[in-house]
Specification:
Blueprint (H helix, E strand, L loop, with lengths): L11 H11 L8 H10 L6 H9 L2 H11 L13 H8 L1 H16 L10 H21 L5 H10 L3 H8 L1 H14 L3 H9 L3 H11 L4 H8 L4 H7 L4 H9 L13 H11 L7 H19 L8 H12 L1
Length: 311
């Protein structure tokens, strides 16, 4: 367990949610993930050093090999050695995979109205894959960080729903009924939203500040669009937050996503529908590794139905 200590004097609203978590102990990251974070502080560490904590954790080692041998990478020969896997796909990719896998393993499954942990996983994987593709189109070199942040953007919701079930039951139901973003409802009721809490949680676990910052700002697409190229990573993550949820209901932010994509789109960028088709293909490759079930409706089908209803 992680004992929470506060080293600053936050505003009143933030103090309220920090006290909420201070009453409970956060689960600690697995030792393998902690060791990987320690190794990342030294840029001279390479595949040999990173392989050691992974090989010492049979479950993680198995996950990493399934990940590297998936059709997502498409290697012609099976990779059976962790060090070779890291060498082939890169330290950052494997490190981030291990870290977000560790974080996902810590998420509680509260019984809180319409909350569904499997739906959260499905939404998260779609968003991570989408943000990664946008990052690539923007020419970003930090696409793995973008993927990780988009994947983890809603990690605080199950923790908050567990600690405040009555409030979150009401807000989750209102979000579905009125098609209002949960972050907007949280801001109205508490003066903060789950993105801020998510960034704070990642900092408690000592995940990279860059990833925590991307999670923290995932609901501010207009701000990052206005601030231009220097905020492209944050924009990619925030665009992913405009995707529909698998829980159903009208995709009320489709037009906003179409608009933002249209403003960014370069001459050789694919149509948005083609992006969704690629996300669906990548989802099919990733989902078995993470033991995530497939949504009843693909992202492409959801988009096509939304466009048809508009006509």
């Amino acid at each position: 367990m992680v004992n929470i200590k506060f080293c600053c004097t936050p505003n009143r609203n933030r103090t309220e949610w920090q006290h909420l978590f201070a009453r409970a102990s956060l689960p600690a990251l697995p030792q393998s993930a902690i060791r990987l974070l320690e190794l990342s502080r030294n840029p001279d560490n390479g595949p040999a050093e990173y392989a050691q904590p992974i090989e010492a954790d049979p479950g993680l080692s198995s996950q990493v090999l399934r990940f590297v041998n998936s059709s997502y990478f498409g290697f012609s020969q099976e990779i059976s050695n962790i060090r070779q896997a890291i060498t082939l796909v890169g330290v950052r990719t494997i490190k981030n995979f291990a870290l977000w896998s560790a974080v996902f393993s810590l998420l509680p499954n509260p019984k809180c109205g319409p909350f569904d942990l499997q739906c959260l996983w499905q939404d998260s994987l779609r968003r991570g894959l989408f943000a990664r593709l946008i990052g690539k189109l923007l020419g970003r070199r930090d696409t793995e960080d973008i993927f990780t942040a988009a994947l983890l953007q809603d990690l605080a919701i199950p923790f908050l729903a567990k600690e405040q079930p009555a409030q979150y039951r009401g807000m989750l139901e209102e979000s579905l009924r009125t098609q209002t973003r949960l972050s907007i409802l949280e801001q109205r009721q508490f003066g903060w939203h789950h993105g801020e809490v998510g960034g704070w949680l990642l900092r408690q676990w000592h995940l990279p500040e860059g990833i925590a910052g991307l999670v923290e700002g995932h609901s501010e697409v207009d701000r990052w669009l206005a601030e231009g190229p220097r905020q492209e990573a944050k924009l990619a993550v925030a665009m992913s937050a405009l995707l529909p949820t698998v829980a159903g209901g009208r995709w009320h932010e489709r037009e906003r996503l179409v608009e933002v994509y249209g403003r960014l789109k370069g001459g050789r960028w694919p149509r948005l529908e083609e992006i969704f088709m690629e996300v669906d293909r990548d989802f099919a490759d990733f989902a078995p590794i993470l033991k995530i079930t497939h949504p009843a409706k693909s992202l492409t089908a959801t988009y096509q139905e939304a466009m048809a209803s508009k006509e």
